Amino acid sequence: MAWSLSKAFTNLFAGARQVEPEDWENLEDTLLQADFGPRVTDEVIGAVHAVADVSATLDTDDLRRILGEVLEERLAAFDPTLSLASEPGKPAVVLVVGVNGVGKTTTIGKLAKFIATRGKRVLVGAADTFRAAAVEQLATWAERAGVDIVKPQQDGQDPAAVAFQTVERAVADGHEIVIIDTAGRLHNKSGLMDELAKIKRVVEKNVPISEVLLVLDATTGQNGLNQAEAFLEQAGVTGLVLTKLDGSARGGFVFAVQELTGIPVKLVGQGEGIDDLTGFTPHVFVRQLLE
Ligand code: GDP
Ligand code: GDP
Ligand code: MG
Question: Could you tell me what percentage of the chain is helix, strand and coil, using 3-state DSSP and rounding each to the nearest 5?
Fold first, then answer.
């Protein structure tokens, strides 16, 4: 997987030599351009300075290593583990939320395949009933992933009813994981939040929800985060999914978004294909960033 961000980092502290004042400016520019945001950028530079002072080094190779350690340490504050624990005989339920176009349905297709490949029975629920096309899109992904789907019984059926029926079928048929797709239209925010609250209430009549995943498009940065504010305030989000990190020079958004929301990134999407989803592993991520 290639982060275009790493190109920018290649020129940082390049060559085995002593660090020059320009290197620090270069570091600041690189972090800002990569969407780390001003606060994280300042703190990262401060931390790199501090460690370099303590170890009395101005060696570019050392500085590169120190930068990697500082970045990893920041990520270590968040637990990226996807929680799929469930009660005996009941499925783990994952609710996927976010504004339109961020990649919810695509992520569900990828995640369903990922879990199914590891031998668990997955059922997806098409609770984005607002558009018939959304249901068909999820059905296509379910077929590719080789998993079962519950669709609305008629056009525009109450999303909460679809979610309820999905869980009911999972319990009856022994599916271990349920993933529920939801609408993301923003023209009526409070309506959407009420709808999500109702989905949760109805699902939790049967089983607790294991994860509420908020999907964010990494290419939209801070603006995308602002658009997702209502979800962060009202949807009980337990994990973030960052999509479209492929070809995005915005890998630093991972740092900014976790620290702004206090919520861990649990999955990363890096392409439109069914296998283009990974868990979030800080060590691997930082290595890729700096390589
Ligand atoms: P939803 O409205 O949130 O359900 O978004 P969709 O799943 O329909 O995705 C919207 C668009 O984003 C589609 O064209 C997807 O192919 C694309 N997309 C989703 N995830 C990724 C990703 O990780 N990388 C890229 N490049 N495109 C993605
Ligand atoms: P309300 O519609 O605001 O009264 O909210 P409820 O929590 O009563 O139900 C929300 C939706 O979930 C309803 O539209 C029902 O279709 C569905 N639902 C709730 N409980 C059940 C149930 O026991 N069986 C079935 N099949 N659907 C249910
Ligand atoms: Mg969708």
Answer: 50, 15, 35
